[in-house]
Amino acid sequence: MDASLPVSSPTEPLPDWITCHADDETYEWARSGWQRAATIPGAWFDADKADRIVERWPRIFRLTDDRFAGIAFKLLPWQEITVRLLVGWKKPVEIIDPETHSQTIAYVRIFRRLDLWIPRKNGKSEFLAALAVLFFVLEKIQGAQAYVFARDEDQALIPFNKMVQIIEAADGLKEDRHGNERITINARSIYLRETSSLCQLLTGSTKGKHGKSPTVTVGDEIHEWKSTEIADTLRQGTGARLQPIELFASTAGRRENRVGYEWFQESLSIMRGEIDDPSTLVVYFGIDDEDDWTEETIWRKANPSLGLTPTLDYLRTEFRKAKGRPAQEAIFQCYHLNRWVDQIGGWLPRSKWQACTADAKSWPRLWEENKGRRAFLAFDVSSVNDLTALVAILPPDADNDKWVVIPRFWVPEETLERRAQEDKRVNWNAWVKSGALETTPGDFVDLNFLMRAIFDAGAHFAVERIGYDPWGTSKLIGDLQHEGLDAELLVDMRQTTANLSAPTKEFERLVFAQDIEHGGHPVLGWMAGHCSVRFDVNLNYVPDKKHSLDKIDGVVATVMGIGLAMTDEEPEPASPWDDPDYTLVKQS
Q1: DSSP character string of 329-348
Q2: Residues 524-539: pLDDT tens digits?
Q3: Is 496 inside a domain boundary?
Q4: Pairing relation of β-strands 89-96 and 183-185?
Q5: Do the Cβ atoms of 220 and 158 come closer than 8 Å?
Q6: Which residue, of 241, 266, 285, is where some domain finishes?
Q7: pLDDT of residue 574
Q8: CATH number at residue 273
């Protein structure tokens, strides 16, 4: 609160620290923030206070990580504008004086909420934490309360620990000049002795969040939130505070996450004046839909700290890794250019798939040519009248430098004609004639055919593991064991992101590196051609049955088989200290 008289008028032109970016569309948010605040009756900009805080900032705060550790926190232009707008704009509000109970006027900050949307590695966490320390510690409000949260406690620890590091690195914050403790820091809380103020780390659960009276709220990574309930609950508790502030920050994420994407859409609407909310300052850096994300000049539009962090060399390296790989391209655009992503269709380009084999008609020979090799089986059982897949995955060995995938597919015979009529793009009958697709009698898949194929593969290869999804397979698993299959060979592989993410990325890598041989199998190639992938909140991705254009059972089974092989591999020790057989002194 500030009861001093206004020192500037909203009728004044934009200040130099904004007009110097007049030709830069990247700073639309800065012009918007100034102009929206200026429309409030009685609003004024306290330039002296803004100047004072910006001038003192690098004398108070120090950076905390890596090559920056211990260096004075000198604000970058985008950070300086944000600080000036947050602390400078004020408005008059009528209040009841708690001592006299008479009506009076107080001048309070206009901006009560910050929505910061910026790509990774632009100093978001450090800046967010420093802002939190500014408003929680340096404003010296008696009995202040601050709360830090994110999707879960582990994620909330990132900004919370940054606050701790900034406090500990700052001169004269944690202790006074005589060495007396001013701030007590615990694993989940920060206590200010002088003002009896408490900052707490919150879990991602919505339980126990009522009854609080926040002065400062810090919410990180909005794009991963499951709901806005914590933010909403904390906001409802700010009614007794004259100038509470909410500090929210995030990168882009999946459009599928409606919570994060709708918050982002609201932020843009506020920035553009489509929603009347002058109390929210939106700071946004990202590329537009029409921008060519492969152009380095566009990268600067999304990364205002480029050169300092991230470095241009880092972005170039990540770009080269991603280029030509649709899923990786999406991740690059999301994390580094702040572009929201959907599920990815055309995940495995046809040209890359075809390049994996020198002979696109060699698939019938792979079975005999690889007899006796070490193998991992995986099967994906469909609904009763759909495709079922069994895939044998053969890792490289001393005589073979490529992975080999050998699939088998079944459909009910009585559904074949209907399939041929409904989808003329696919020559189902030709696949059956060639042996690429097998039929089972009747109008549903007879899993006895799959069971016999599993035993055939067991007799033909050195099978080490067999992966399956337990959904719809309990009878088959029982029958396999009843017929003598060793139960230890069977591995429950639910088709979750946790199980399939790593092998999905490895399968993708093998295809792009041409390190997998599929012999041009037409059914598997058809599935690979229209397979989409879906992302989780951390942008891990797996094959997406729901949004792929058609069946992808063979791709899913392939990924499962690769996952089994990856789990079975014994990694080499990263260093002698990781080798249990390593000793520093030879035994005599």
Answers
A1: HHHHHHHHH---B--BSS-S
A2: 999 999 899 999 888 8
A3: yes
A4: unpaired
A5: yes
A6: 285
A7: 47
A8: 3.40.50.300
